[in-house]
């Protein structure tokens, strides 16, 4: 299949729609001033073939897409033991809801809602240098130095009252072992990591190759662990729209409020699309359409 | 792959566990007196190859597995218009919960929770002979006459206070067009359909062949519609354990409290397993293990 | 205190506001066609002095105000045993909510939300002729024949899907002993009782005299039982606005969607006000203002 | 009425039950080590008559009883404007629940649940020296220097993860104007105020005298404001047991997890009872019984 042609077609079809729908995230200034007139897409096959179109080399704030990589580190370190404190079910509630957390006594529903990702961060803090480890993992996976945008990280911390509430609430229930401020520092920094579509498509490569490193490197995680992360992405990766994504797109995906979405076609390729304007569910307005087009044009879907 | 060998191994491994865990559904006498000492499994590939083991020819009450077929009829008749009154997101709540229905103003979260299936039944009642149509569909799909167990249907009606509550609640919100009693009659009867593993594995065949009839017959639904039903089964098909099923098994599945589970490997095969004792999530205790074993032995999974 | 003067002043102040705010209940035709241009008020002291103004002799549909009298019958028959199946706490949710009922396993929060009143009706059905007993009680209390408006009762039944849902839901939990249809028949008929402000002010008289009959008659209930009904009216009697009523008015009160409100000044008097247009909380728009004025002018309040 | 005799009788009846039921609050060491073998009761009439029995002069941690006094300061300063950010309805949920706060977008249900009291503290922080003002008010009201137990205040802060969650959550919704840490410091310190039954009974005196100072001093608040605080105490003052308190006791009351309860008989007297062991609803096990006995013996109740 000529993937470069497919991505070019998608770029041609969707570029005219930039700025026509959705809204850039406004909760911190550093995100609010990103231009919505950007659209990038990149993929990398299991065999290492790449394709890209549009603003695919422009770095953006990966935000919640980072949850896939922090989860990978935690599963690598703890495997099944991780699930003592985090569930694996879709939440049926907004990504930052406290209701579910209360009725289920401090155990977050899954690692991709904010509470769950904070609980994952707590597990990483217990291991060692959580943030440096995560940056080391990402840099190795895409073969380039990956960094945190310090201004974004600071803004996340300054305005993160709801995440601070979630973390304290879990601390009250005993879900977190470590100091709340230390855990949140990791979480706020991981959300502020900057990467381009090309970098993400490469870094996520282990998810379409049963856990094997996309470049030269040791296996990241096992085949079973990989399959499980993909399952979690499909059922819980796109906030309240996970059912809708499965229904219309049918690929394990994880989105972020920076406007990026990473998707996996098991045994075939990983794909990253980015456009900053978000729809009402917090997913990239054009990113979602790009994935629908990709599936329609290629027939690639897990179903 | 020698599927007959795989099913024989699974049957050999799991038969000794019959009666060792789980509990037969007790809410109606006709289900409560079914012996837990039964285990059957059957599959049918896209090419028509079959394999079976254990009590694969014994008819059982398909219960909520019927929701896949009633949904198929409704999608065939209404396509996208069906989704005006039914959501497509995992529920995050027990299958017969009213809470979600209240907060979302009478729109059930998905067609596989009870409220959603009742809403689907209402749509079928608006079309025509809902129940005869469904039986006709099933009989055609498996090539044998499929019937309702009248005693089970009557028991469902006599004890279905919660389903009656759900239906009246949706009627109050305007989700149902037809008379509550008439809609519930269809729902209670579809739950009381009796089929064997072999029949179900054959009948569900269109789900692994892009909607094409498993025997000689016209296309059941389109490829896109088929893919969407598979997506809904994966995200919502096994009650509160959908995330867990995706995580451990990774196949679109739909279970029933009669102890059956139907699963799909897209483009490969459909599979039905049955054992009456249920685990705490309402899914067949051995059926779940059988699916895990099947995936472990064959490597077949959508992820 | 010259109560006649007070009621005349209130009538003079509020009559010009008739039709200026609120909306007549629209869920059944018989209520929807009642003119909002009506306002009546009547009181009766412990000593038997009466005062009235405006449309105080016009009968109206007492609706949920009937819950006070059915509760009285149930307490008379069962005393403490009544509380095995009904709570005594404010609900914190709308009067016809199912959420609370689900989380508290079918036990309604208090006897004044719909679910609670249906549970009270079930207790009365277990005793004997529930509806005739209730009409006998009311007729004796006000010294005139009290009747049900058959058209209203039929409309309640025809449109009562939410109440039917509540009743079936409680039946599923075992809160109701009797046939759902029979219990609902009592409930729908009690809501359709017609009385005037003067009749209600007299009939409720036992609530300000420690349970003693307002006319010639045996004690209705004990002093302790009376105090408890007053407490329930104060904490739970006016739907979601109970806190607001306590805060602004400070009298045990029970309202109905027919536009009536009955209020008690313990050891002094009972009061009934009626005006059909309702505010957003389902309480009479002018009735509420009338009670505020009454308290302001007389200084009578339990606090 | 011989109030001294009544209190002596209550003390005689209940002292033998000390240590027989309930549990001392365990969430901070300073409270956990308080002996449950203590019981005190004191009252003060509108005319200044006092009566006391048992450990009525022993200071204890007033905890949530402080919410009455901080609310008084806030109402004095802001009157109606206070209610822009705080509701006045019973919560129907546990005192430290986040669920209600989420569904009602950060507006706490009433000033006596923790979230509401934290919102009140925020209003006081906006005024000026919140904590010194509160201590000044209390010292003036009881004629003796009132102080904070520094160890208790520190422990509250060290373990107050849930309150920190509530405060951050409200900050996220814009309910709090001030720095979260500063608001919580006031809240944790007010909970750590130590007073005896005799001091509290005197300090609360304005609540039974239409807002007039119990000793020599200017009016504390207006008669209407006083009546409203009493209404809030009755409907919301005793956590999840407010309905039960109204039903069995019928007096405006506010309890604290230190084991104290303050109650008001409007126009007659204020009463404080203390015994450290709590029942399952977080109210003093013997305190509740003492209030029931007091009402039974004196017939004093608002209903």
From TrEMBL, chains A, B, C, D:
Keywords: Acetylation, Hydrolase. The keyword Acetylation applies. It comes from the Bacteria. Pfam families: Glutaminase. SUPFAM superfamilies: beta-lactamase/transpeptidase-like. Substrate binds at residues 64, 114, 156, 163, 187, 239, 257. Its EC number is 3.5.1.2. GO terms for molecular function: glutaminase activity. It catalyses: L-glutamine + H2O = L-glutamate + NH4(+). Homotetramer. Belongs to the glutaminase family. This is Glutaminase. The lineage of its organism: Bacteria, Pseudomonadati, Pseudomonadota, Betaproteobacteria, Burkholderiales.
